[in-house]
Amino acid sequence: MATKTMNMIEAINSAMDIMLERDPEVVIMGEDVGYFGGVFRATAGLQNKHGKTRVFDTPITECGIIGVGVGMAAYGLRPVPEIQFADYIYPGLDQLVSEAARMRYRSAGDFICPMTVRSPFGGGIFGGQTHSQSPESLFTHICGIKTVIPATPYDAKGLLIAAIEDNDPVIFFEPKRIYNGPFSGYYDRPVEPWSKHEGSDVPEDYYRIELGKAATIREGQAVTVLCYGTMVHVVKAVVADLGIDAEIIDLRCLLPLDIKAIEASVKKTGRCMVVHEATRTSGFGAELAALVQERCFYHLEAPVERVTGFDTPYPHSLEWAYFPGPIRIARAFDKIMKD
Amino acid sequence: MAQRPKDNLAPLRLHIPEPKFRPGDKADFSDIVIPPVDVNQRPDEHVNPSDIHPLSYGLVRVLDDDHQAKGSWNPGLDPDKLRLMLRNMLTVRAFDDRMFRAQRQGKTSFYMKSFGEEATSVATTMALHRDDMCFPSYRQQGILITRDYPMVHMMNQIYSNRGDKLKGRQLPIMYSAKDYGFFSVSGNLTTQYPQAVGWAMASASRADTRISAVWCGDGSTAEGDFHSALTFAAVYNAPVIFQVVNNQWAISSFSGFAGSERTTFAARAIGYGIAGLRVDGNDALAVYAAMQWAADRARTNNGPTLIEYFTYRGEGHSTSDDPNAYRPAEEYASWPLGDPVDRLKAHLVKLGEWDDDRHAALLTELSDQVKATQKEAEKNGILGHGLNHSFETMFEDVFEEMPWHLKEQCEQVLEEQRDKFGPDWSAQ
């Protein structure tokens, strides 16, 4: 299959372009996604190519966007709404929690909701507390919804295609810090473009990556690091800098979770560290830590370590003090490797 | 600490709405303005919404005080159709009576009657096409009855028994019947509003010919979903009919808590630039005519309509509240717009197409039919008596395919049953 170097935005755009082409039921909508092509340009050119009834702008009401999506899905369409920032998703939460996620269950399959809600999430772009949040654990806590978070252009395209084809609602969170290049977490170093990363080698045609399968980014023996999104690249850079023989697992999908990959790795290394950008308390790291101790307790050499954002709103000027960057991760490695 | 008001400024006052009558008061509705039939005339279906603002404040009526169908809104239905309308409304009433009693007998957890507002689901559905999509709230059992959905399915759902098509997952009355154009009832209020718009937008985007209709109550117009939906519908000129069943009460809160002290619910349409109609909800012919008008508009790409049915909730909100605790017991008897069934019956009698004997015979027939259906449904079990769906069904349909964590939890619930009933217990 012919490939092309793509950044994350181009890969996401390509996934939607292909799905609009392949499946006449796919519809894309959201604030500024139509003529303009989205504030991050993820839908650039799609309206022009596929027409206004398939790719269109919406009023600024997330409740309306999600609710209309549920109704379109009930009709038989496959809506792919964009919520401009994950921080804006809350007005649509009732429609996601009580409607989209429950539709198959409450109607015993009479109605389903094959809807994929795309939304940029996470910080590191000086977005302040309303453009930086990582609310993924709100969605993993809801039964009936899948949560997918890619970390490379290749994964973003394959996972988004699988999400759109999935017959259940999917939250597709795009780490916006790495839209244009993988971020090492060393914010004072030059930014690398995607073209230097193998994950930017993206097939131009259709392919899918099964939801619920993690990817091993680096094999190692000393410690397992579970991470996703932007943090995959940060962890990778820190591990390289520190020279630790860590096994890095990119979860890619938080629900369904690839528990087999997690178990196998932790049982091998005997240590487990979880890294996410979201706030700590009741974050997805808490779920991962609980699962690991339930299933791998007798293999553990040290307590499961969590590296997370702090339990504060995402600050503006102190962004890098908040961000779980190289220093916080290095300290956690020190601690977990000591025991 | 509260600040003292500045000496030179009048203190502000917070207004808390209060209904006019409470238990012990004599209900007096003489201030409700009921314009004579045809003061609010039927405009052409292609009318510009801005030209019909008075229809959002008036009252569309067909049946006059002498039970005759009059004026420009008269849909001119033949006697057979009128009798069918009466029959459907009476079926709802007979069904409600029986199911309310079943709840009181402990056969199920919950029930909601629609006494006094049957016209708003029966007459409306009769004015729609059979393949139009209905997005009901929780008091529109009349849609299913009008579309001849098997009553035994409704009862199985209410009993959450092994015959329940929804596998015992939903609170009673939260039906779902896609093949009958009846969307899954949520329980969270007004969420169906933007969904109905989405369905209508999808239909329009596919050059389909079907339209959607959605119901909510007066109280739940306050939900954000209501306003998101009206915005979307106006923006995309969606072929959807919004209906507000203004039955005056949201559990114990009167309609003033949704804003009725200042304006009508139909007038919400004006701000969105869509057509609005305020209709006598107890006049089945006016309800039919309004729906027909709105449906014609939607079908001819003239966009959405908001219809307010001015009616009265004749009984409690559900089996879980006692209306005598918050409103005078005789309010319904004093309601100036009467009872929808009585009025339609009187109209048919006036036409010479109906009489008391036939009416009594119909009541007996429907009561017998409901009782017989109830017996049939109870063969599948009643709530909590063991004839429920299998334990595995609790974990099915969360996703299309069951992920590992649900499989593990499913195994756990089966082990719990074996702990309870012994190792020989079988899920089958």
Could you list some keywords that capture this structure?
heterodimer; A: 339 residues; alpha/beta; 4-stranded mixed beta sheet; 12 helices; 35% helix; B: 428 residues; two-stranded antiparallel sheet; 7 strands; 37% helix
Report Rg of chain A: 19 Å
* Major sheet summary line of chain B: 5 strands, parallel
| Main beta sheet strand tally, sense and closure of chain A | 5 strands, mixed
Greatest interface and its participating residue counts:
A-B, 47 and 45 residues
Strand content of chain B: 5-15%
Estimate the mean pLDDT confidence of chain B: 96
Strand content of chain A is 15-25%
**Fraction of residues of chain B in helices?**
25-40%
Unreliable segments of 5+ consecutive residues of chain B:
none
Quick one: how many beta strands of chain B?
Answer: 7
Elements of chain B, N to C (H/E): HHHEHHHEHEEEHEHEHHHH
Sheet with the most strands: spatial strand order of chain B: 1-2-3-7-6
Oligomer: heterodimer
Strand order of the largest sheet of chain A: 9-11-10-13-14
Residue windows where pLDDT falls under 50 for at least 5 positions of chain A? none
The helix/strand class of chain A is alpha/beta
Mean pLDDT of chain A: 97
The secondary structure category of chain B is alpha/beta
Helical content of chain A stands at: 25-40%
Q: How are helices and strands ordered from N to C of chain A?
A: EHEHEHEHHEHEHEEEEHEEHEHEHH
Q: What's the total helix number of chain B?
A: 13
